[in-house]
Amino acid sequence: MSDWYRDFANSGVGATVTRRLGLPRPAVLRRYEPGDPVLPGVALVGGQGRLRGTIISVLEQAQISIADEETSGGKPAAVILDATGLAGPADLAAAHDFLAGALKGLRPSGRVLVLADPVAGADSPAQAAARQALDGLVRSVAKELRAGATANLLIVPVGAEASVVSPLRFFLSGRSAYVDGQAVTLSPADIPTGEDPDRPLAGKIAVVTGAARGIGAAIARVLARDGAYVIAVDIPAAGQSLADVANHVNGTALQLDITASDAADRLTAHVQQRHGGVDVVVHNAGITRDKLLVNMDAARWNSVLAVNLQAQLDLTQALLNSEGVLRTGARVVCVSSQSGIAGNRGQTNYAASKAGVIGMVRAWAPEFAARAAAINAVAPGFIVTEMTAKMPMGTREVGSRINSLQQGGLPVDVAETIAWLAQPGSAGVNGQVVRVCGQSMIGA
Amino acid sequence: MTRQAAIVGGNRIPFARANSAYAQASNQDMLTATLDGLVARFGLQDRHVGEVVAGAVLKHSRDFNLTRESVLGSRLAAATPAYDIQQACGTGLEAAVLVANKIALGQIESGIAGGVDTTSDAPMALNDDLRRVLLKANSAKTWQRRLRAFGGIRPGQLAPDVPRNAEPRTGLTMGDHAAITALEWGISREDQDELTVASHRNLAAAYDRGFFDDLVTPYLGLTRDQNLRPDTSLEKLAKLRPVFGRGDGATMTAGNSTPLTDGASAVLLASDEWAAAQGFPVLAHLVDAQTAAVDYVHGGEGLLMAPAYAVPVLLARNGLSLQDFDFYEIHEAFASTVLSTLKAWEDPDFGKTKLGLDAPLGAIDRSRLNVNGSSLAAGHPFAATGGRIVATLAKLLHEAGPGKRGLISICAAGGQGVVAILES
After folding, report:
1. Helical packing angle, A165-172 and A52-61, nearest 10°
2. Are the beta carbons of A422 and A414 closer than 8 angstroms?
3. Are residues B280 and A274, on separate chains, in Cβ contact within 8 Å?
4. How many A-B residue pairs are in contact by the CB < 8 A criterion?
5. Scanning every residue of chain A, which has its alpha carbon at the shortest distance from the alpha carbon of B209?
6. Which of B43, B75, B214 lies at the smallest CB-CB distance from A255?
């Protein structure tokens, strides 16, 4: 499933042809490999808000050289703007000044990160306007950037300064290759320190549903790479490839129909008996049964809602109910979808289920926070899988190009985002929906 | 008293009808896949278990080290010892007994017992005459002698030696033998068909309730046993023509006899301590086992009746009666075999003259027999049947709660039988 067009556009002849014809020129994205530095180059830091010190210390810990407006440290690999402390729209001019100068030299697969105050806590309409303006600014910058660079917005309430560390590292690194034009709101939390950055999930027990292939298999691989012990779950009929995945990641295969009436009991009993509890649960299992609404029978509707939404609710509730099974600091990550945000013709059932997941995550976030845990959703856009390989070429090419990175994402991109949300250090990310879509034009 | 080995869990691939889904799979392919499924279920990657014991009935000569080769191809640690055994259809259960005995003696802490068979990828040997010619040619020291040796080849020698499902000493197939026994015990066609329908319905129901979710791993596109006919009925079975036996007394059909089948199974056994240390469940313990053989050549006993002799010995040693069990797993080589065995145990004359007992063993509660189906529905890849039954019964006993007891009875070619007691 190679991206032939991207490879062509990056070849000698292809580069010339696509440039002359003004065709899209998708870049080869910088993706994380074990041992990679967080950022391959210097970071340019601007702004004088309350987060500047935190940003500097994160960069220093990650051994990233820092440049600022005054020094010229060569072409930056990342541009970070602390835009907290704005009083009104007039203060935005400084942001424009800084970014206009900094972005010109941004390296391929560079990163633009803007840190802002939440709109909700603004003292005045003018202040709220300035804060909200940053959202439009960052989304537009993301659309203007080329060569695989991304721009994202971190919204940091007062008191959530410590929560910045893990998101900052994620968005600078190759793990966030296909996350673009997103806003993530942090919350105050007790952030554990001292985790091994190469194996942030060491010692964690992780359950991944729908793990036999595609995105689920990639999630299992990335969680295992980051140190987690993976319990790979899928329907019994997928057992052969499920066993292959489990054996590949040195984990366990659990053949389970998550819609069975005793599924929650069996999952709970399994993790309790084998491991005493579970730290990470990834609700990835999902099915599609596409039909226009007027032609959709009850079976198509019910099966999609049962697998994609009700099972996530039931399994999560059962784990919450079982004393001690969901360990302190637990993470639940639910896979939603672009269709759940934007809707999709022929997918009323699927879009309803995936939108429902978002509602569920937001509603559960306070209870999870009270347990020092967190629950979040990721919403993949066009991800290149066996499923998309079967699409007609025209549909596939259009679907994969209509985003700011001009290419489809890979299963590993979704997996990296999930693995980040699963990290102990990501405790300050709760109730969020992170799109992994290359800033898709659909539902943006 | 020595400790008892725990049955921790099992894995098998769905059983396939001969020359079908697994036609291209070798014994080694199937056994390796089955071991890998077990490894995945219990997270045993790169781990040592004390010993892996398995075997096949129909075996290529190149597969002399079948189990060890399968271990090397699997995700188990390469330094895991293994050996092959073969006791016909008793192979799988006998393998479990051997592993359990070493665990009981403290020689190993964990082990895997298994079995595999293919009738699709069966070995075919050279005709004996041709083989002698080729051996002679191979040992010839000059080309002239070699040429002369090749001159001894005759067209008739090109016919290969195909393995047959027949007893070498009687020339009768197993079905022919079973038909003789069925006639002797007066086993009716209706009773055989009834047992067959129950086997299919029970197996289908067990699949439907997810019983096999942690016992079976799909393979090569099969997710359930290919021979399973959930909608079979007495009416459908009644239409089949007898294939074994002759004339009006012929009652055995393709429906109430097991078909030739391909498949593999494996069971994980361990000491209680080892299982607890890994966080693995103990489904049941293998309490005791017994083998027996009968003289079906001259002694006037049926080929498949050996378990009828093994069980009373086992019961006596354990101070149990035949009625002291919550579940009975009697291998359904043929429906008539199960019914003949049960009838023999109920028969005072058989008990007195053949078993030397004052009273017959008596009848069993038939609602406890093969409650999740058996070989008539699942099929019977010879060496794989024992592992299927051990894992199935162990899980059944575990579900029923502590202190439940089950009896396994498996008949085998050569007039042999292997029986065992499991207890939760």
Report:
1. 60
2. no
3. yes
4. 67
5. A260
6. B214
Among the partner-chain residues A243, A256, A260, the one whose CB lies closest to the CB of B36 is A243
Q: Domains of chain A by range and CATH?
A: 31-185 (3.40.50.720), 205-436 (3.40.50.720)
More confident residue, B342 or B141: B342
Q: How far apart are CA A360 and CA A146, in angstroms?
A: 35
Whether B245 is in a domain gets the answer no
* Section A292-318 average pLDDT: 96
Query: Does B405 reside within a domain?
Result: yes
Query: What is d(CA B208, CA A291) in angstroms, rounded to the nearest whole number?
Result: 28
Give the CATH number for residue B365: 3.40.47.10
How far apart (Å, rounded) are the C-alpha atoms in residues A257 and B5?
Answer: 31
Report how far apart, in Å, the C-alpha atoms of B7 and of each of A29, B46, B395 are.
50, 21, 9
Is the pLDDT score of B103 beyond 70?
Answer: yes
- Active centre residues of B (catalytic): 89, 380, 411
- Put residue A24 in one of left, alpha, beta given phi > 0 → left and psi -120 to 50 → alpha: beta
Residue in A242, A250, A258, A275 to test binding to B, most B beta-carbons within 10 Å: A250
pLDDT (tens digit per residue) in A213-228: 999 999 999 999 999 9
Distance from CA of B174 to the nearest CA of A (A): 34
CB A170 within 8 A of CB A131: no
Closest alpha carbon to A46 in A101, A124, A107, A126: A101
Coil, helix or strand for B223? coil
Please give the tally of structural domains in chain B: 1
What angle, rounded to 10 degrees, do the helices at B91-104 and B385-400 form?
Answer: 60
With CB atoms and an 8 Å threshold, state whether A247 touches B40.
yes
The DSSP call for residue B353 is I
With beta carbons under 8 A apart, name residues in chain B contacting A261. none
Q: Of B230, B223, B226, which is closest to residue B200 (Cα–Cα)?
A: B230
Residue range of the domain that includes B407: 174-210+287-423
Helix (H) or strand (E) holding B406: strand B405-412
Biggest alpha carbon distance in chain B?
75
Using CA coordinates, name the residue in chain B closest to A236.
B213
Q: Which of A229, A237, A253 sits opposite B41 (nearest CB)?
A: A253
Confirm if A435 and A381 have CB atoms less than 8 A apart: yes
**Confidence grade of residue B302 (pLDDT, cut at 50, 70, 90):** confident
Separation of alpha carbons B25 and B262, rounded Å: 9
- Decide if B200 is inside a domain: yes
Give whole-number Cα distances, B217 to A238, A243, B270, in Å. Answer: 8, 8, 21
Q: Is residue B8 situated within a structural domain?
A: no
Q: What is the ipTM of this complex?
A: 0.90
Measured distance CA(A39)–CA(A112) in Å, rounded = 12
